[in-house]
Amino acid sequence: MPALCKAKPTPNRKGIEAESVTRGAEPETVEERIGYCFRDRSLLLRALTHRSHSHEHSASGRPAVPDNEQLEFLGDAVLGFLVSEMLVGAHQMGFEL
Q: What is the pLDDT along the chain (97 residues), one digit of tens a residue?
C-alpha cells in the first residue's frame, strides 16, 4: 500500500495514448497520470503485463511474472453481465427470437 499517494489527474491532452501513460513508467508515475492511487500496486503491474512479456521473462531463466490474461477474462465477463442487465432492464417486455 502506498504510504503517501497524492495522485492528481494529469490534464488529458489530445492524442494521448494509453501506451504513452504506462510505457516504462513506475507505478507512482502511472498513478499520477491517471489520478488514482492503487491499494495493491502488484495488481496495477499485473494489469499492464502482456502474456508475451511474461513468457519472454520466463524464457530468459527468470521467474515468470503474472500477466493480465485472467484479469482481462474477468473484466470481459463483468462487462458482458452489466450490458446484459442493462438490455434486459430496458426491454423487459421484449420477445426472444
A: 445 676 665 555 444 444 455 566 678 888 888 888 988 888 888 888 888 877 777 777 776 678 888 889 999 999 999 999 999 888 887 776 6
> In 3D, which of 1, 66, 73, 52 has the Cα closest to residue 31?
1
pTM above 0.85, yes or no: no
Buried (b) or exposed (e) across 49-58, using 16+ Cβ within 10 A? beeeebeeee
Cα distances (angstroms) measured from residue 56 to each of 7, 19, 31, 62: 32, 19, 26, 9
